[in-house]
Structure formats: structure tokens, C-alpha cells
Amino acid sequence: MRNCLRDHVDLKEFCSIYQAHDTPDLPHDMGVFAFVRHPADWLSSLFTHRKCKGWNWDKSFALEQKCAAKDFKTFIANICSHEGIVSQYFNHYLDKYRSAPSRLFIGKQENLCQDFISALTKFNESFKKQPIVELKDQKANGAKNKTPSLTVGDRDRLYESQEDFYSMYGYEK
Q1: DSSP letter string over 121-170?
Q2: For the chain, what is the largest distance between any 2 Cα atoms, rounded to a whole number of angstroms?
Q3: What phi and psi, each to the nearest 5 degrees, are found at residue 82?
Q4: What distance lies between CA 73 and its chain's CA centroid?
Q5: Are 21 and 89 in contact (CB under 8 A)?
Q6: CB-CB contact of 76 with 16 (8 Å)
Q7: What is the pLDDT along the chain (173 residues), one digit of tens a residue?
């Protein structure tokens, strides 16, 4: 996503846009888009990222403060013991913009290219569709092969403890 933005926005504007944890105040006529990801895949990716970065858990998020662990099974067990904690994480970014649903677009990472195009179209942004479509066939850094996966039992427990997120964004186990 960052590379896609960088290719379509001037550098000064890109630097002001891409502040990973910011939720800036924006003009009321400006659209906001965000992407969610299936909790099982997102948690696996988050765990792997923290592991690769020397366990740099971000303690400003309840999920990372309460659930941090050095093994994936414990991390997932910790997540499952905190009902709704995945939603809390994403709400940090989205709640500020929910009061005006017409200016908020939430896409799914599983449909990244098409949903990105839909967001840009919804907000009447000018863009070149072809470079975005061409990204569809590329794997995101090959990370899919490096991330741990959940057992069926862990998936069931994750679903039960984070059902609000699954329901809100239309995900299934």
C-alpha cells in the first residue's frame, strides 16, 4: 500500500499522509480509507513482524500490551482471553471517522487492489488503474510462507473471543 501511495502522491504529501499510527483531523469533505484483514492472518503477520523487529511491541495498544508473547501459541491464547481486543486495535484508527460514514471506506486486504480502486473511485481521486491492477499478482514480500498458522481449535477460540470483529467486517472463521 505504501508503495502504491508513493507512486501516486508527491513526496511532501506522502510524508504527511503516511504516519502509521496517526488519525489526523481532516476537512469534512475529505474521504478516509482503511483496510482490515482476517484476524487469523493479521495476528500471524503482527506476531511475525514483532519477532523480526526484536519484539518491539507497541505498548500504547492494549492488544500489544496485554497479549505480547515470544511464542505464537501463547500470543494467540492471550488474544483469546481478551474478548474484543482486535476490534479495539482497529477502532483506534477508525472510530474518529465513523461519525460520517459517507466519507469512510473500509476495504479488505484480501481484496486490496480492487478495494483500493473502489476507495479512490468513491472519493473521485484521479489515478491510473493499470499499475494497481498489476500489483494483484504480486505476493506481499513473500510473508505468507513465513508466518505461523493457527490450529483449527485456535481459529475457533479466536472467532469466539473476537466475534465482534468478524461480524463487523464480514469475516468467517
Answers
A1: HHTT----HHHHHHHTTS-STTGGGTS----HHHHHHHHHHTHHHHHHHT
A2: 47
A3: -125, 90
A4: 21
A5: no
A6: no
A7: 555 555 655 555 555 555 667 787 888 888 999 999 999 999 999 999 999 999 988 888 999 999 999 999 999 999 999 999 999 999 999 999 998 889 999 999 999 999 999 999 999 999 999 989 888 766 544 445 577 999 999 999 999 999 999 999 999 98
Q: DSSP 3-state assignment of 6? A: helix
Give the whole-angstrom CA distance, residue 38 versus residue 163. Answer: 12
Nearest by Cα to 86 from 57, 68, 118, 63: 63
State phi, psi for 132 to the nearest 5 degrees.
Answer: -70, -45
Distance between first and last Cα of the chain: 25
CB of 166 closer than 8 Å to CB of 172: yes
The residues that bridge with 104 in the sheet, in sequence order, are: 32
pTM above 0.85, yes or no: no
Instruction: Quote the crossing angle between the two packed helices 39-52 and 72-80, to the nearest 10°.
Output: 130
